[in-house]
Specification:
The protein has about 120 residues and is an all-beta fold. The chain is built from no helices and eleven strands. The N and C termini lie far apart (about 40 Å).
Length: about 120
């Protein structure tokens, strides 16, 4: 199993920045993809960004390319999502996930961007 604990959400204004953290524990992270989904009210859950723990390859949704950066700290077993130039449409609950044969989820952290 993998345990995931998010932190760093909050209320900001459009144009501001936030950094989300996802601290992991449990099984080894080798071969895992770790990243972030988000879900806005009435919307489907969307994969925002992900990183392969082994090689560092990344994925970004088109809606966040150039504004969000995902990174990992191997020693801390933590994944970060740096979010810059935030927009009101980025408002959502952000969920950390890990995936290899099975998907695990964190509890979610609220990000609210006011205009």
């Amino acid at each position: 199993q993998v345990q995931l604990v998010e932190s760093g959400g909050g209320l900001v204004q459009a144009g501001d920045s936030l950094r989300l953290s996802c601290a992991t524990s449990g099984r080894t992270l080798n071969n895992l993809s770790v990243g972030w989904f988000r879900q806005a009210p009435g919307e489907e859950r969307e994969c925002v960004a992900a990183i392969n723990w082994n090689d560092g390859n990344t994925y970004y949704a088109d809606s966040v390319k150039g504004r969000f950066t995902i990174s990992r700290d191997n020693a801390k077993r933590t994944v970060y999502l740096q979010m810059n130039s935030l927009k009101p449409e980025d408002t959502a609950v952000y969920y950390c996930f890990s995936n290899y044969l099975r998907t695990y989820w964190g509890q979610g952290t609220q990000v609210t961007v006011s205009s």
